């Protein structure tokens, strides 16, 4: 008998949908920009800015202006050559500029002579921005004339490219003004700080390039200019400003051959974490790749050879490990090459084998020369690495002791962990709760099948100021490591975590914020992949409650309270300031903070490792004036804090 269970829907040739032009982008925006949330929204800016940066790397652009206009749109202008305006040979009647804005995989970076090196290689950049904008205006100054072309409704040309006058003051360049489509994005308000952070990095990587930022939105008026004649040397100084440098000098070397080049800047600090940040054609390679691999291998060899030659390592002593040498190292490895092979559209990892050889040779030669020319600094580097080596041995003993304890204890889980019954990590959540009383409330409020509770006592060790051996002896940290179940530091394996959501649950006051910061610093430094993979969350318990009739309404913060009062002015005096977590009834804690259908969680992500490293160092380091300045500057962006 025939199976008719699937016959209700047709599947014929007529059912095959062909998406043409920019349609695929609007149907599946996440494939092109990652998401339709804030990250995807700002990705539009990066795509347009990257085109201008490519002109700078080609030697034709000296200034880029990024403006957030009062109407919510964004304008990016460069003084490069300007997109070609002639009719495209493959598309009669259409200008090359229109093709670049309306055809995917069209651009000057696929084999023509327009660009020797480039970050935008997929040819989907500015056309994707056009597809996801309700309106985009393209202006081109080229050969003495000013050209304009307007697009609307997701990239539909409103006429043809036309000359509207003379180019002002003989200017050349491209200006793109776009308004994100509110039907595509969750929100369309740009965040100035997100943009300026990225622009500053671009200026560091392109020595002498001037990037100006202006925010013209009402109440937001701001201007910033980024220009660094020292390039990545200034970048290293900037990253180490929040730390105590081991010596004043910043090392630098460069080498080029066969249409590829490398620049490296470096300086050690007295801290315990390495900060190596690599870039290829101006694109942050957050997953590293061949260029970073070549640098790491060569720096280990060079420092060990130097230590032997200077008799700083005795004949019977073992070579220093790479991780010991890199302790406290801040380095920028920036390469430019004609045909970079990035892994995926995100361009997170560089795969060119030839660049590894170049970086390795350059480091073997140039770093060795630098150490010979700077013997005082060289001796300091080796002395620090020797100390790190001893601490690593002690840390290994501490880890081995922890493993032996775990084996003796059976499951090896901390005694105060109230575990869940499920053994499927994807559905399990671990709440890290400060204090035994709060832990008791959370235990009663949880869903015992999928929610586990780990109470911690007081403020954990500040890992920013401690080496591994001391960190691993800390009782609270031992409990955290055991509960997560995936190891720590270099031994950490994110595939072995016991819970896919690690949720920090602390009071919404100053102490609670400090505890959250300590925990986040621990996870970022000691279990980096936990953060990178989006497994860390911050719970957001409400600050206020009020009665509307017989129903209790919870309000997360002052902003929600003010909004509620605007709509309900008669409730001005019913309000109740909620107590600390430990004083909440378990049903109240469940309803406000732990029930997945009602709670609000803030996911912690790290998009820019260099920036996260800098913020950790500022907030958790010893430079009090710099910490005060950072807090005062960023106070307006703080949420969920009650003082």
Short description:
The protein is of the alpha+beta class and 643 residues long. The chain is 36% helix and 19% strand.
Mean pLDDT rating? 82
Class inferred from helices and paired strands: alpha+beta
CATH topology of the largest domain: Heat Shock Protein 90
Shape verdict: flat
- CATH superfamily of the largest domain, by name, is Histidine kinase-like ATPase, C-terminal domain
| Estimated share of beta-strand residues | 15-25%
The second-level CATH architecture of the largest domain is 2-Layer Sandwich
Helical residue percent? 25-40%
> Kindly, what is the distance between the CA atoms of the first and last residues, rounded to a whole number of angstroms?
73 Å
Whole-number total of structural domains: 3
Write the layout of secondary structure elements.
Elements: H1 23-27, H2 30-33, H3 38-57, E1 63-68, E2 74-78, H4 96-102, H5 125-131, E3 133-142, E4 145-152, E5 156-157, E6 162-166, E7 173-180, H6 192-205, E8 210-215, E9 222-226, H7 232-240, E10 251-257, E11 260-268, E12 275-280, E13 283-284, H8 290-309, H9 322-325, E14 329-337, H10 353-373, H11 375-409, E15 429-434, H12 436-445, E16 451-456, H13 468-471, H14 475-484, E17 501-505, H15 510-526, H16 528-532, E18 536-539, E19 544-548, E20 551-555, H17 558-567, E21 576-577, H18 586-594, E22 601-603, H19 609-620, H20 624-634
Parallel strand pairs: 1-8, 12-14, 15-16, 15-17, 17-18
Antiparallel strand pairs: 1-2, 2-7, 3-4, 3-7, 4-5, 4-6, 8-9, 10-11, 11-14, 12-13, 18-22, 19-20, 19-21
Helix pairs in contact: 3-5, 3-6, 8-10, 8-11, 12-18
């Amino acid at each position: 008998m025939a199976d008719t269970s699937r016959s209700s829907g047709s599947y014929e040739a007529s059912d095959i949908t062909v998406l043409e032009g920019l349609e695929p982008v609007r149907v599946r925006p996440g494939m092109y920009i990652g998401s339709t949330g804030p990250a995807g929204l700002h990705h539009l800016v990066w795509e347009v800015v990257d085109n201008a940066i490519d002109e700078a790397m080609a030697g034709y652009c000296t200034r880029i202006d990024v403006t957030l206009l009062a109407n919510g749109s964004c304008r990016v202008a460069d003084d490069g050559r300007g997109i070609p305006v002639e009719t495209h040979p493959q598309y009669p009647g259409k200008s090359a500029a229109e093709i670049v804005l309306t055809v995917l995989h069209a651009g000057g970076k696929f084999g023509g002579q327009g660009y020797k090196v480039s970050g935008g290689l997929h040819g989907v950049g500015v056309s994707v921005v056009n597809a996801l904008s309700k309106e985009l205006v393209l202006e081109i100054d080229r050969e003495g004339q000013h050209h304009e072309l307007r697009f609307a409704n997701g990239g539909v040309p409103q006429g043809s490219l036309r000359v509207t006058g003379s180019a002002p003051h003989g200017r050349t360049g491209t200006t793109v003004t776009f308004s994100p489509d509110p039907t595509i994005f969750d929100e369309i308000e740009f965040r100035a700080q997100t943009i300026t952070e990225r622009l500053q990095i671009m200026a560091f990587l392109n020595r002498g390039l001037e990037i100006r930022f202006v925010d013209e939105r009402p109440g937001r008026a701001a201007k910033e200019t980024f220009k660094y004649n020292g390039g990545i040397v200034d970048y290293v100084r900037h990253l180490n400003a929040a730390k105590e440098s081991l010596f004043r000098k910043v090392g630098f070397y460069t080498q080029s051959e066969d249409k590829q080049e490398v620049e490296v800047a470096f300086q050690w600090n007295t801290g315990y974490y390495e900060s190596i940040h690599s870039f290829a054609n101006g694109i942050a390679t957050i997953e590293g790749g061949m260029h970073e691999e070549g640098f790491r291998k060569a720096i280990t060899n060079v420092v060990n050879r130097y230590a032997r030659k200077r008799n700083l390592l005795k004949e019977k002593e073992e070579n220093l490990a790479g991780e010991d040498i890199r302790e406290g190292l801040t380095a920028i490895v920036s390469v430019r090459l004609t045909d970079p092979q990035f892994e995926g559209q995100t361009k997170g990892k560089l795969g060119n084998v030839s660049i590894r050889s170049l970086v390795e040779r350059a480091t073997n030669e140039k770093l060795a020369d630098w150490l010979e020319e700077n013997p005082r600094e060289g001796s300091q580097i080796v002395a620090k690495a020797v100390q790190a080596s001893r601490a690593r041995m002690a840390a290994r003993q501490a880890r081995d002791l922890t493993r032996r304890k775990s084996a003796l204890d059976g499951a090896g889980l901390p005694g105060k962990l109230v575990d869940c019954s499920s053994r499927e990590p994807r559905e399990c959540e671990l709440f890290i709760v400060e204090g035994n009383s709060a832990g008791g409330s959370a235990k009663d409020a949880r869903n015992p099948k999928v929610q586990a509770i780990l109470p911690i006592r007081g403020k954990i060790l500040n890992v920013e100021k401690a080496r591994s051996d001391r960190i691993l002896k800390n009782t609270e940290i031992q409990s955290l490591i055991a509960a997560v179940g995936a190891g720590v530091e270099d031994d950490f394996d994110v595939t072995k975590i016991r819970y896919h959501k690690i949720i920090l649950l602390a009071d919404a006051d100053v102490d609670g914020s400090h505890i959250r910061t300590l925990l986040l610093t621990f996870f970022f430094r000691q279990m980096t992949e936990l953060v990178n993979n989006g497994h860390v969350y911050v719970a957001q318990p409400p600050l206020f409650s009020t009665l509307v009739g017989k129903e209790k309404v919870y309000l997360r913060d002052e902003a929600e309270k003010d909004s509620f009062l605007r709509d309900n002015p008669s409730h001005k005096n019913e309000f109740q300031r909620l107590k600390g977590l430990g004083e909440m009834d378990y049903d109240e804690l469940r309803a406000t903070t732990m029930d997945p259908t009602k709670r609000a969680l803030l996911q912690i992500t790290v998009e820019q490792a260099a920036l996260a490293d800098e913020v950790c160092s500022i907030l958790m380091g010893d430079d009090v004036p710099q910490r005060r300045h950072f807090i005062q500057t960023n106070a307006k962006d703080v949420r969920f804090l009650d003082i």
